[in-house]
Amino acid sequence: MKSAVETLNPTRVRLTVEVPFEELKDSLDAAYKKINQQVTVKGFRKGKIPARVIDQRFGRGAVLEEAVNDALPKFYTEAVNEAEVNPLGQPEVDITELKDGELLAFTAEVDIRPTLEIPDYSGIEVTVDAVEVTDEDVEKSVEQLRERFASTSTVERAAEEGDVVTIDLEAKVDGEILPDGVADGVSYTIGSGELLDGIDEAVKGLEAGGEATFTSQLKGGSAEGKDAEVTVKVTTVAARELPELNDEFAQMASEFDTLDELKADSRKRLENMKQFDQATQAQERVLDELLKLVEVPMPEKLLEDEINTRKHNLEHHQLGQMGLDLVKYLEIQGKTEEEFLAETKEQAEKGIKTQFILDELVNKEKLDVSREELTEHLFRRAASSGMSPDQFAQAVAEGGQVPMLVGEVARGKALAVVVEAAKVVDSNGEVVDLSDDEDEVETAAEAVEAVTGEAEVSEDK
Protein backbone atom coordinates (compact mmCIF):
# COMPACT_ATOMS: atom_id res chain seq x y z
CA MET A 1 0.00 0.00 0.00
CA LYS A 2 1.19 3.51 -0.85
CA SER A 3 -0.20 6.66 0.73
CA ALA A 4 0.41 10.39 0.67
CA VAL A 5 -0.99 13.25 2.75
CA GLU A 6 -1.94 16.72 1.52
CA THR A 7 -2.65 19.54 3.99
CA LEU A 8 -5.78 21.38 2.84
CA ASN A 9 -5.74 23.81 5.78
CA PRO A 10 -4.47 23.73 9.39
CA THR A 11 -7.37 21.50 10.44
CA ARG A 12 -8.03 19.30 7.39
CA VAL A 13 -6.01 16.86 5.27
CA ARG A 14 -6.57 14.69 2.22
CA LEU A 15 -5.07 11.20 2.23
CA THR A 16 -4.42 9.56 -1.16
CA VAL A 17 -4.10 5.78 -0.96
CA GLU A 18 -3.19 3.13 -3.57
CA VAL A 19 -3.67 -0.54 -2.71
CA PRO A 20 -2.27 -3.38 -4.89
CA PHE A 21 -5.07 -5.82 -5.66
CA GLU A 22 -3.34 -8.75 -3.98
CA GLU A 23 -3.75 -6.94 -0.64
CA LEU A 24 -7.53 -7.26 -1.07
CA LYS A 25 -7.37 -11.09 -1.03
CA ASP A 26 -8.54 -11.50 2.59
CA SER A 27 -11.43 -9.09 2.05
CA LEU A 28 -12.41 -10.80 -1.21
CA ASP A 29 -12.41 -14.19 0.54
CA ALA A 30 -14.59 -12.71 3.29
CA ALA A 31 -16.94 -11.20 0.71
CA TYR A 32 -17.46 -14.55 -1.07
CA LYS A 33 -18.03 -16.25 2.29
CA LYS A 34 -20.61 -13.65 3.36
CA ILE A 35 -22.50 -13.83 0.06
CA ASN A 36 -22.39 -17.63 0.27
CA GLN A 37 -24.31 -17.47 3.55
CA GLN A 38 -26.92 -15.09 2.16
CA VAL A 39 -27.93 -16.69 -1.15
CA THR A 40 -29.06 -20.06 -2.48
CA VAL A 41 -28.26 -21.58 -5.88
CA LYS A 42 -29.96 -24.72 -7.10
CA GLY A 43 -27.55 -27.62 -7.22
CA PHE A 44 -25.24 -26.30 -4.50
CA ARG A 45 -25.39 -26.64 -0.75
CA LYS A 46 -25.70 -23.36 1.21
CA GLY A 47 -22.23 -21.98 1.83
CA LYS A 48 -20.62 -24.22 -0.80
CA ILE A 49 -21.25 -22.13 -3.92
CA PRO A 50 -18.04 -21.69 -5.98
CA ALA A 51 -16.74 -18.18 -6.52
CA ARG A 52 -17.15 -18.40 -10.32
CA VAL A 53 -20.83 -19.26 -9.89
CA ILE A 54 -21.36 -16.28 -7.57
CA ASP A 55 -19.65 -14.05 -10.15
CA GLN A 56 -21.92 -15.42 -12.90
CA ARG A 57 -25.17 -15.27 -10.96
CA PHE A 58 -24.75 -12.10 -8.90
CA GLY A 59 -21.97 -10.24 -10.66
CA ARG A 60 -18.34 -9.66 -9.80
CA GLY A 61 -19.21 -6.04 -9.02
CA ALA A 62 -21.29 -7.03 -5.97
CA VAL A 63 -18.33 -9.03 -4.63
CA LEU A 64 -15.89 -6.17 -5.21
CA GLU A 65 -18.21 -3.70 -3.49
CA GLU A 66 -18.48 -5.95 -0.42
CA ALA A 67 -14.70 -6.51 -0.35
CA VAL A 68 -13.85 -2.82 -0.69
CA ASN A 69 -16.29 -1.84 2.08
CA ASP A 70 -14.61 -4.42 4.31
CA ALA A 71 -11.06 -3.34 3.45
CA LEU A 72 -11.38 0.47 3.46
CA PRO A 73 -11.29 0.99 7.29
CA LYS A 74 -8.09 -1.06 7.57
CA PHE A 75 -6.26 0.77 4.76
CA TYR A 76 -7.54 4.15 5.97
CA THR A 77 -6.17 3.44 9.47
CA GLU A 78 -2.80 2.41 8.03
CA ALA A 79 -2.66 5.63 6.00
CA VAL A 80 -3.53 7.73 9.06
CA ASN A 81 -0.80 6.08 11.12
CA GLU A 82 1.72 6.47 8.32
CA ALA A 83 0.88 10.18 7.95
CA GLU A 84 1.05 10.67 11.76
CA VAL A 85 -2.10 12.80 11.90
CA ASN A 86 -4.81 12.87 14.58
CA PRO A 87 -8.17 12.65 12.79
CA LEU A 88 -11.37 14.05 14.26
CA GLY A 89 -14.61 12.35 13.31
CA GLN A 90 -15.30 10.22 10.28
CA PRO A 91 -13.56 10.79 6.89
CA GLU A 92 -15.20 11.62 3.58
CA VAL A 93 -14.01 8.77 1.34
CA ASP A 94 -14.01 8.81 -2.45
CA ILE A 95 -12.97 5.74 -4.46
CA THR A 96 -11.04 7.15 -7.42
CA GLU A 97 -10.05 3.92 -9.14
CA LEU A 98 -10.99 0.26 -8.89
CA LYS A 99 -9.39 -2.05 -11.48
CA ASP A 100 -10.30 -5.68 -10.94
CA GLY A 101 -7.12 -7.65 -10.45
CA GLU A 102 -4.91 -4.55 -10.51
CA LEU A 103 -5.55 -1.64 -8.15
CA LEU A 104 -7.78 0.08 -5.59
CA ALA A 105 -7.23 3.83 -5.15
CA PHE A 106 -9.16 6.18 -2.89
CA THR A 107 -8.93 9.56 -1.17
CA ALA A 108 -10.06 10.38 2.36
CA GLU A 109 -10.60 13.92 3.60
CA VAL A 110 -10.82 14.33 7.36
CA ASP A 111 -10.54 17.02 10.03
CA ILE A 112 -7.45 16.77 12.22
CA ARG A 113 -6.30 18.20 15.50
CA PRO A 114 -4.39 21.40 14.77
CA THR A 115 -0.77 21.66 15.86
CA LEU A 116 -0.63 24.09 18.78
CA GLU A 117 2.20 26.08 20.32
CA ILE A 118 1.64 26.60 24.05
CA PRO A 119 3.49 29.75 25.12
CA ASP A 120 4.82 30.51 28.60
CA TYR A 121 1.74 30.84 30.79
CA SER A 122 3.49 31.69 34.07
CA GLY A 123 2.79 35.39 33.52
CA ILE A 124 -0.98 34.97 33.78
CA GLU A 125 -2.45 37.14 36.53
CA VAL A 126 -6.10 37.25 37.60
CA THR A 127 -8.13 38.95 40.31
CA VAL A 128 -10.80 37.11 42.30
CA ASP A 129 -13.27 38.05 45.01
CA ALA A 130 -11.85 38.22 48.52
CA VAL A 131 -13.08 35.71 51.10
CA GLU A 132 -14.98 37.89 53.53
CA VAL A 133 -17.67 36.68 55.91
CA THR A 134 -19.47 39.47 57.74
CA ASP A 135 -21.50 39.31 60.94
CA GLU A 136 -24.52 40.01 58.73
CA ASP A 137 -23.74 36.89 56.65
CA VAL A 138 -23.60 34.78 59.82
CA GLU A 139 -26.85 36.26 61.16
CA LYS A 140 -28.57 35.55 57.85
CA SER A 141 -27.35 31.93 57.90
CA VAL A 142 -28.58 31.39 61.46
CA GLU A 143 -31.89 33.07 60.59
CA GLN A 144 -32.38 30.65 57.69
CA LEU A 145 -31.83 27.76 60.11
CA ARG A 146 -34.30 29.37 62.50
CA GLU A 147 -36.89 29.58 59.70
CA ARG A 148 -36.65 25.81 59.21
CA PHE A 149 -37.70 25.27 62.82
CA ALA A 150 -40.64 27.67 62.69
CA SER A 151 -44.04 26.43 63.92
CA THR A 152 -47.52 27.63 62.97
CA SER A 153 -50.69 28.23 64.97
CA THR A 154 -54.15 29.17 63.75
CA VAL A 155 -55.18 32.77 64.51
CA GLU A 156 -58.51 34.59 64.41
CA ARG A 157 -57.45 37.71 62.51
CA ALA A 158 -56.80 39.05 59.04
CA ALA A 159 -53.92 37.52 57.10
CA GLU A 160 -50.59 39.39 57.15
CA GLU A 161 -47.22 39.16 55.39
CA GLY A 162 -45.44 35.94 56.44
CA ASP A 163 -48.62 34.13 57.53
CA VAL A 164 -49.41 30.66 56.22
CA VAL A 165 -52.88 30.54 54.71
CA THR A 166 -54.90 27.58 53.46
CA ILE A 167 -56.76 28.61 50.31
CA ASP A 168 -59.11 27.37 47.61
CA LEU A 169 -58.50 28.61 44.05
CA GLU A 170 -60.70 28.85 40.95
CA ALA A 171 -59.44 30.24 37.63
CA LYS A 172 -61.61 31.37 34.72
CA VAL A 173 -60.63 32.41 31.19
CA ASP A 174 -63.27 34.20 29.11
CA GLY A 175 -65.80 33.43 31.83
CA GLU A 176 -65.25 29.65 31.68
CA ILE A 177 -63.76 27.67 34.58
CA LEU A 178 -60.63 25.88 33.33
CA PRO A 179 -60.55 22.05 33.53
CA ASP A 180 -57.33 22.32 35.55
CA GLY A 181 -58.24 25.66 37.13
CA VAL A 182 -59.60 24.47 40.49
CA ALA A 183 -57.48 23.64 43.55
CA ASP A 184 -58.61 23.22 47.16
CA GLY A 185 -56.67 23.16 50.41
CA VAL A 186 -53.52 24.78 49.04
CA SER A 187 -51.01 25.90 51.71
CA TYR A 188 -49.32 29.20 50.87
CA THR A 189 -46.91 31.48 52.73
CA ILE A 190 -47.76 35.11 51.98
CA GLY A 191 -44.82 36.88 50.40
CA SER A 192 -43.07 33.71 49.19
CA GLY A 193 -43.88 34.41 45.54
CA GLU A 194 -44.49 30.70 44.92
CA LEU A 195 -47.94 30.97 43.33
CA LEU A 196 -49.64 33.49 41.06
CA ASP A 197 -48.72 37.13 40.60
CA GLY A 198 -51.16 39.27 42.56
CA ILE A 199 -52.16 36.63 45.09
CA ASP A 200 -50.31 38.30 47.99
CA GLU A 201 -52.28 41.54 47.59
CA ALA A 202 -55.52 39.55 47.23
CA VAL A 203 -55.23 37.52 50.46
CA LYS A 204 -53.69 40.16 52.73
CA GLY A 205 -56.41 41.52 55.00
CA LEU A 206 -58.71 38.51 54.53
CA GLU A 207 -59.86 36.47 57.52
CA ALA A 208 -60.88 32.79 57.39
CA GLY A 209 -63.93 32.56 55.13
CA GLY A 210 -63.05 35.69 53.18
CA GLU A 211 -62.50 35.68 49.43
CA ALA A 212 -61.23 37.98 46.70
CA THR A 213 -60.90 38.03 42.91
CA PHE A 214 -57.89 39.22 40.96
CA THR A 215 -56.44 38.94 37.45
CA SER A 216 -53.19 37.08 36.83
CA GLN A 217 -51.28 35.62 33.89
CA LEU A 218 -51.16 31.83 34.22
CA LYS A 219 -47.66 30.33 34.45
CA GLY A 220 -48.62 26.79 33.43
CA GLY A 221 -51.45 24.43 32.61
CA SER A 222 -53.92 24.34 29.72
CA ALA A 223 -54.17 28.14 29.45
CA GLU A 224 -50.51 29.01 30.07
CA GLY A 225 -49.70 32.61 29.23
CA LYS A 226 -53.33 33.75 29.24
CA ASP A 227 -54.88 36.25 31.68
CA ALA A 228 -57.27 34.54 34.06
CA GLU A 229 -59.80 35.79 36.59
CA VAL A 230 -58.82 34.02 39.79
CA THR A 231 -61.05 33.69 42.85
CA VAL A 232 -59.24 32.86 46.08
CA LYS A 233 -60.97 31.86 49.30
CA VAL A 234 -59.11 31.75 52.62
CA THR A 235 -60.11 28.81 54.83
CA THR A 236 -57.53 29.23 57.62
CA VAL A 237 -54.94 31.77 58.70
CA ALA A 238 -51.91 30.58 60.68
CA ALA A 239 -49.15 32.70 62.16
CA ARG A 240 -45.56 31.48 61.92
CA GLU A 241 -43.71 31.46 65.24
CA LEU A 242 -39.90 31.42 65.23
CA PRO A 243 -37.95 29.86 68.12
CA GLU A 244 -35.94 32.22 70.30
CA LEU A 245 -32.27 32.52 69.43
CA ASN A 246 -30.57 31.07 72.51
CA ASP A 247 -28.53 28.09 73.64
CA GLU A 248 -31.66 25.94 73.75
CA PHE A 249 -32.26 26.62 70.06
CA ALA A 250 -28.63 25.72 69.25
CA GLN A 251 -29.05 22.38 71.03
CA MET A 252 -32.33 21.69 69.20
CA ALA A 253 -31.12 22.68 65.72
CA SER A 254 -27.50 21.45 65.77
CA GLU A 255 -24.88 19.36 67.55
CA PHE A 256 -23.66 22.42 69.49
CA ASP A 257 -24.40 23.35 73.09
CA THR A 258 -24.35 27.11 72.74
CA LEU A 259 -25.52 29.73 70.27
CA ASP A 260 -21.98 31.12 70.06
CA GLU A 261 -20.66 27.73 68.96
CA LEU A 262 -23.41 27.47 66.34
CA LYS A 263 -22.53 30.92 64.96
CA ALA A 264 -18.82 30.08 64.88
CA ASP A 265 -19.59 26.93 62.90
CA SER A 266 -21.80 28.92 60.52
CA ARG A 267 -18.95 31.38 59.96
CA LYS A 268 -16.53 28.54 59.24
CA ARG A 269 -18.91 26.89 56.75
CA LEU A 270 -19.50 30.21 54.98
CA GLU A 271 -15.74 30.76 54.75
CA ASN A 272 -15.28 27.28 53.24
CA MET A 273 -18.03 27.94 50.70
CA LYS A 274 -16.50 31.27 49.69
CA GLN A 275 -13.04 29.70 49.44
CA PHE A 276 -14.48 27.05 47.12
CA ASP A 277 -16.18 29.77 45.05
CA GLN A 278 -12.91 31.72 45.00
CA ALA A 279 -10.96 28.69 43.75
CA THR A 280 -13.56 28.04 41.04
CA GLN A 281 -13.45 31.71 40.03
CA ALA A 282 -9.65 31.59 39.83
CA GLN A 283 -9.74 28.51 37.60
CA GLU A 284 -12.35 30.02 35.27
CA ARG A 285 -10.46 33.30 34.92
CA VAL A 286 -7.08 31.65 34.46
CA LEU A 287 -8.62 29.46 31.76
CA ASP A 288 -10.01 32.54 30.00
CA GLU A 289 -6.55 34.14 30.04
CA LEU A 290 -4.93 30.92 28.77
CA LEU A 291 -7.37 30.80 25.85
CA LYS A 292 -6.30 34.34 24.88
CA LEU A 293 -2.66 33.24 24.67
CA VAL A 294 -3.10 30.41 22.16
CA GLU A 295 -4.16 30.70 18.52
CA VAL A 296 -6.41 27.72 17.76
CA PRO A 297 -7.53 26.97 14.17
CA MET A 298 -11.13 25.71 14.24
CA PRO A 299 -12.18 22.55 12.34
CA GLU A 300 -15.41 23.60 10.60
CA LYS A 301 -17.13 20.18 10.60
CA LEU A 302 -16.27 19.61 14.25
CA LEU A 303 -17.63 23.05 15.17
CA GLU A 304 -20.85 22.38 13.24
CA ASP A 305 -21.31 19.03 15.02
CA GLU A 306 -20.67 20.61 18.43
CA ILE A 307 -23.22 23.39 17.79
CA ASN A 308 -25.82 20.80 16.74
CA THR A 309 -25.06 18.65 19.79
CA ARG A 310 -25.49 21.56 22.20
CA LYS A 311 -28.71 22.65 20.49
CA HIS A 312 -30.07 19.09 20.54
CA ASN A 313 -29.23 18.58 24.23
CA LEU A 314 -30.96 21.84 25.15
CA GLU A 315 -34.09 21.14 23.12
CA HIS A 316 -34.56 17.42 23.83
CA HIS A 317 -33.17 17.07 27.35
CA GLN A 318 -33.07 20.25 29.42
CA LEU A 319 -36.11 22.04 27.95
CA GLY A 320 -38.06 18.80 27.54
CA GLN A 321 -37.79 18.15 31.28
CA MET A 322 -39.21 21.63 31.94
CA GLY A 323 -42.06 21.23 29.48
CA LEU A 324 -40.69 23.96 27.20
CA ASP A 325 -39.78 24.12 23.53
CA LEU A 326 -37.08 26.31 21.99
CA VAL A 327 -39.54 29.00 20.85
CA LYS A 328 -40.96 29.42 24.37
CA TYR A 329 -37.48 29.32 25.90
CA LEU A 330 -36.22 32.11 23.63
CA GLU A 331 -39.34 34.13 24.43
CA ILE A 332 -38.65 33.80 28.17
CA GLN A 333 -34.97 34.67 27.64
CA GLY A 334 -35.87 37.65 25.44
CA LYS A 335 -33.56 36.42 22.66
CA THR A 336 -33.95 35.99 18.92
CA GLU A 337 -33.00 32.69 17.26
CA GLU A 338 -30.05 34.47 15.62
CA GLU A 339 -28.79 35.65 19.02
CA PHE A 340 -29.23 32.15 20.44
CA LEU A 341 -27.28 30.54 17.57
CA ALA A 342 -24.51 33.15 17.86
CA GLU A 343 -24.16 32.44 21.60
CA THR A 344 -24.21 28.69 21.01
CA LYS A 345 -21.47 29.02 18.38
CA GLU A 346 -19.34 31.13 20.74
CA GLN A 347 -19.76 28.57 23.56
CA ALA A 348 -18.98 25.68 21.20
CA GLU A 349 -15.81 27.37 19.94
CA LYS A 350 -14.68 28.01 23.52
CA GLY A 351 -15.36 24.39 24.48
CA ILE A 352 -13.38 22.99 21.54
CA LYS A 353 -10.47 25.39 22.11
CA THR A 354 -10.39 24.45 25.79
CA GLN A 355 -10.16 20.74 24.98
CA PHE A 356 -7.46 21.23 22.34
CA ILE A 357 -5.28 23.46 24.55
CA LEU A 358 -5.60 21.39 27.72
CA ASP A 359 -5.03 18.12 25.84
CA GLU A 360 -1.85 19.64 24.40
CA LEU A 361 -0.81 20.64 27.93
CA VAL A 362 -1.45 17.10 29.17
CA ASN A 363 1.05 15.85 26.58
CA LYS A 364 3.53 18.69 27.12
CA GLU A 365 3.55 18.28 30.92
CA LYS A 366 3.36 14.46 30.67
CA LEU A 367 0.38 14.29 33.04
CA ASP A 368 -0.99 10.88 33.98
CA VAL A 369 -4.26 9.99 35.68
CA SER A 370 -3.97 7.63 38.64
CA ARG A 371 -6.56 5.01 39.54
CA GLU A 372 -7.34 6.96 42.73
CA GLU A 373 -7.98 10.19 40.80
CA LEU A 374 -10.22 8.40 38.31
CA THR A 375 -12.14 6.70 41.13
CA GLU A 376 -12.70 9.99 42.96
CA HIS A 377 -13.91 11.61 39.73
CA LEU A 378 -16.25 8.69 39.08
CA PHE A 379 -17.74 9.03 42.57
CA ARG A 380 -18.39 12.75 42.03
CA ARG A 381 -19.90 12.24 38.61
CA ALA A 382 -22.12 9.49 40.01
CA ALA A 383 -23.35 11.78 42.79
CA SER A 384 -24.21 14.56 40.33
CA SER A 385 -26.07 12.11 38.07
CA GLY A 386 -28.18 10.70 40.91
CA MET A 387 -26.79 7.19 40.39
CA SER A 388 -24.88 4.96 42.78
CA PRO A 389 -21.13 4.65 42.05
CA ASP A 390 -21.63 1.02 40.96
CA GLN A 391 -24.48 1.92 38.59
CA PHE A 392 -22.54 4.85 37.14
CA ALA A 393 -19.36 2.77 36.71
CA GLN A 394 -21.34 0.05 34.91
CA ALA A 395 -22.99 2.60 32.61
CA VAL A 396 -19.60 4.18 31.84
CA ALA A 397 -18.01 0.81 31.07
CA GLU A 398 -20.91 -0.37 28.90
CA GLY A 399 -20.94 2.92 27.01
CA GLY A 400 -17.19 2.82 26.39
CA GLN A 401 -16.83 6.16 28.19
CA VAL A 402 -13.86 5.37 30.44
CA PRO A 403 -11.46 7.28 28.11
CA MET A 404 -13.81 10.27 28.31
CA LEU A 405 -13.61 10.28 32.14
CA VAL A 406 -9.83 9.92 32.00
CA GLY A 407 -9.74 12.91 29.63
CA GLU A 408 -11.85 15.00 32.02
CA VAL A 409 -9.49 14.34 34.93
CA ALA A 410 -6.38 14.90 32.79
CA ARG A 411 -7.68 18.28 31.58
CA GLY A 412 -8.47 19.19 35.18
CA LYS A 413 -4.86 18.40 36.12
CA ALA A 414 -3.60 20.49 33.20
CA LEU A 415 -5.68 23.48 34.28
CA ALA A 416 -4.51 23.02 37.88
CA VAL A 417 -0.89 23.21 36.65
CA VAL A 418 -1.61 26.52 34.92
CA VAL A 419 -3.44 27.91 37.96
CA GLU A 420 -0.50 27.04 40.21
CA ALA A 421 1.87 28.87 37.84
CA ALA A 422 -0.39 31.94 37.61
CA LYS A 423 -0.55 34.83 40.04
CA VAL A 424 -3.93 35.03 41.75
CA VAL A 425 -4.78 38.05 43.88
CA ASP A 426 -8.02 38.94 45.60
CA SER A 427 -9.97 42.18 45.39
CA ASN A 428 -8.05 43.46 48.43
CA GLY A 429 -4.73 43.00 46.62
CA GLU A 430 -3.74 39.96 48.70
CA VAL A 431 -2.06 37.02 46.96
CA VAL A 432 -4.27 33.91 47.04
CA ASP A 433 -2.51 30.58 47.62
CA LEU A 434 -4.53 27.70 46.17
CA SER A 435 -1.83 25.06 46.63
CA ASP A 436 -3.45 23.66 49.78
CA ASP A 437 -6.73 22.93 47.99
CA GLU A 438 -7.09 19.14 48.30
CA ASP A 439 -9.83 19.09 45.66
CA GLU A 440 -7.96 21.33 43.23
CA VAL A 441 -7.88 18.82 40.38
CA GLU A 442 -11.51 17.84 40.83
CA THR A 443 -12.77 21.42 40.98
CA ALA A 444 -10.63 22.22 37.94
CA ALA A 445 -12.16 19.26 36.10
CA GLU A 446 -15.62 20.60 36.94
CA ALA A 447 -14.64 24.07 35.72
CA VAL A 448 -13.42 22.57 32.43
CA GLU A 449 -16.55 20.46 32.07
CA ALA A 450 -18.73 23.55 32.51
CA VAL A 451 -17.01 25.08 29.47
CA THR A 452 -16.69 22.02 27.24
CA GLY A 453 -20.16 20.62 27.89
CA GLU A 454 -21.15 17.02 27.28
CA ALA A 455 -19.64 16.64 23.81
CA GLU A 456 -16.20 15.06 23.62
CA VAL A 457 -13.72 15.86 20.84
CA SER A 458 -12.87 12.33 19.81
CA GLU A 459 -10.23 10.90 17.54
CA ASP A 460 -11.30 8.21 15.06
CA LYS A 461 -8.82 6.12 13.16
UniProtKB/TrEMBL annotation:
InterPro entries registered for this protein in UniProt: PPIase_dom_sf, PPIase_FKBP_dom, Trig_fac, Trigger_fac_C, Trigger_fac_C_sf, Trigger_fac_ribosome-bd_bac, Trigger_fac_ribosome-bd_sf, Trigger_fact/SurA_dom_sf
Compartment list: Cytoplasm
Record bears the keyword Flavoprotein: no
Top-rank EC class of the record's enzyme: isomerase
EC number per UniProt: 5.2.1.8
Keyword entries, A-Z: Cell cycle, Cell division, Chaperone, Cytoplasm, Isomerase, Rotamase
Domain annotation PPIase FKBP-type: ranges: 162-215
Gene3D superfamilies linked: 3.10.50.40, Trigger factor ribosome-binding domain, Trigger factor, C-terminal domain
Keyword Nucleotidyltransferase in annotation: no
Substrates-to-products reaction catalysed: [protein]-peptidylproline (omega=180) = [protein]-peptidylproline (omega=0)
UniProt xrefs under Pfam families: FKBP_C, Trigger_C, Trigger_N
GO molecular function: peptidyl-prolyl cis-trans isomerase activity
Protein family (similarity comment): Belongs to the FKBP-type PPIase family. Tig subfamily.
Function comment: Involved in protein export. Acts as a chaperone by maintaining the newly synthesized protein in an open conformation. Functions as a peptidyl-prolyl cis-trans isomerase.
Comment on protein domains: Consists of 3 domains; the N-terminus binds the ribosome, the middle domain has PPIase activity, while the C-terminus has intrinsic chaperone activity on its own.
HAMAP family: Trigger_factor_Tig
Name used for this protein in its record: Trigger factor
Origin species: Streptomyces zaomyceticus
